[in-house]
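USER: Please consider what follows.
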Amino acid sequence: MLMIDHTMIMKLVKTFKDNERVYFLTEFINGMDLFDTLRKIGLCKDSDAKFYTASLMLALEHLFERNIVHRDLKPENIMVD
């Protein structure tokens, strides 16, 4: 993840660990996850759904080209700024 550089993917800055845990320092994204966004605005228009889907496909394509699989893809793990 430290080597991934894409505008649609949150950047991992650094990792840390202690005797019990591993920590991930990521860039700050001022927004909320897609799940909360959809709860707040309700059903979105077709154009909005197409935009979110296309944006997600660009990010996943970038990962796929590098043989990286996202194993926990859900609205709670997609940030909207």
About this structure: Strands lie at 12-17, 22-26, 32-33, 79-80. The first strand starts at residue 12 and ends at 17.
